[in-house]
Each structure stands twice: as C-alpha cells, then as structure tokens.
Design brief:
InterPro entries: GDSL, SGNH_hydro_sf. This protein is mainly alpha-helical. The chain has a domain of 112 residues. Helices cover 39% and strands 3% of the residues. It is built from seven helices and two strands. Helix 6 packs across helix 7. The chain starts with a helix and ends in an 8-residue tail after the last helix. 24% of the residues are buried.
C-alpha cells in the first residue's frame, strides 16, 4: 500500500508540473516585463533576512555564511527564496525592517521575523519560543513605515546622499514616493 501511495503522489506531482509548464508556455509575453519597484515581505524564518537577529542580538551567530561569507541573520546557510525572487526582479536583497542601521528601504522592506505566527502568541517569547512579531505586528510595522514616508513628504524633508545625512540615508525619497504615490519633494 505504501508503494502505491508514493507512486500515486509522485504521479500527481508530475501531472501538476506538466500542467504548470504548459500554462507558463501559453502565457503571452507581449505584455512586457513587469516593472516591480519594491517588495514588501511578511513572514517567518522562511523569509527572515535578519529581523529576528536585530530584535534579539543575544541569539547565537546567525547563518548565511555560504553565500554572504559572514553571518547575516538568516535562518539558512545561504540565500532565501525571497533573495532569489528579488534577484530575479532585478532588485537588491531586502533589508530587514527591524535592522535600521545600514539598511536600504528604497526597494521595499522585509517585515518577516523567525518564529512568527499568524495569530499573536498568548505567551512571551521566553516561555513559548514564538516571536512577538506576529503577522498583525508586521502589518502594523508596515503601516508605521508608510506613515513615516508620508510624513517625510509632508514636511518637505530633504533627503541627500553622502556622509552628513544622519538617520535619513536609508530613506530614498524618490523611490519611496513612487512606491507609495506621494509627491516627491526630495532632491538628490
């Protein structure tokens, strides 16, 4: 019976792959390339690019050594599916939202955090091992992120490149204005 089940599931998977390949081959390429300006990601360790490590730096050394040649806070020893997606879209790797130092949010942000859940945990991280950054918290972080970008535009904040833009260098106003549709009042 076990062999029949494996055979049936592998046959079903093979049919699924064939259907996907046929569907992708039938897609009309005349629509042109999609021009994605940014990725905003929510999730858990499958797509955490360092947010959990930024929030809890006392954790053991993060992984990522294989590709990045240094610890980068990922729950894998290399790139994540999100990294391949960004690369395929011609975008840089996403900075974790919780890592504010040296981050670049001009092409989106990653709100994912290892051990996150969809439903907020009812116990603390130290008792359950679940991250306090559930999906509702990640969505709240996104709303706060967008509000800050909007506030920069309302106040006429000047974002510049260089070494004298303390705390503002991660806000690439031109790109963020295109992402969120705000009027660009920033100059470079």
């Amino acid at each position: 019976m076990g062999t029949l089940k494996v055979s049936y599931s592998s046959c079903t998977f093979s049919k699924f792959l064939v259907i996907c390949m046929v569907a992708f081959s039938l897609v009309d390429s005349s629509y042109g390339d999609c021009d994605f300006k940014a990725i905003f990601n929510f999730g858990d360790s499958n797509s955490d690019t360092g947010g959990f490590h930024a929030a809890f730096p006392a954790q053991p050394d993060p992984y990522g050594m294989t590709f990045f040649k240094k610890p980068v806070g990922r729950a894998s020893d290399g790139r994540l599916i999100l990294d391949f997606l960004a690369q395929g879209l011609g975008l840089p790797f996403l900075s974790p939202y919780l890592e504010s130092i040296g981050s670049d949010y001009s092409h989106g942000a990653n709100f994912a955090s290892s051990a996150s859940t969809v439903i907020p945990p009812i116990t603390s991280f130290f008792h359950s091992g679940l991250s306090p950054f559930s999906l509702s918290i990640q969505l709240s972080q996104m709303r706060q992120f967008k509000a800050r970008v909007d506030e920069f535009h309302k106040t006429g904040a000047l974002c510049t490149r260089g070494t004298h833009n303390y705390g503002v260098q991660s806000w690439s106003c031109g790109m963020l204005s295109r992402i969120f549709g705000a009027a660009s009042s920033c100059s470079f």
